[in-house]
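haha ok so turns out i had the wrong file open the whole time. this is the CORRECT one, sorry everyone. sequence first:
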Amino acid sequence: MDTQNLEKAAIKIQSWWRGNMVRWTLLHAALRAWVIQCWWRSMQAKMLEQRRRLALRLYTCQEWAVVKVQAQVRTWQARRRFLQAHQAACIIQSHWRWHASQTRGLIQGRYEVRASRLELDIEILMT
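then structure:
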């Protein structure tokens, strides 16, 4: 073989080697990019899950706050209705007692203070 053929053979071997090295480098670069992309997607999924949990926690806190406020309002309303009914019952009782005392009999009595005690004598006359 002459030197020219050897040179051509050497050039072919070198170009084949360089091609393999370029393909290997590109393959490894693509694999590294794929690993980075997988990692980034998993990080995005984790961040999305964290944001979702935070939003759910905030929503739950707001809902509990609303429930507590509603319970307080209902308690206040029930207490107000109870106090109104209680006051009405007291008024009815006082009117009924006054009416009963006017229609059932007369209350007469006397009292006198002696020394350090109060002596009370009440007579109820039914008419």
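Strands lie at 105-114, 117-126.
again sry for the mixup
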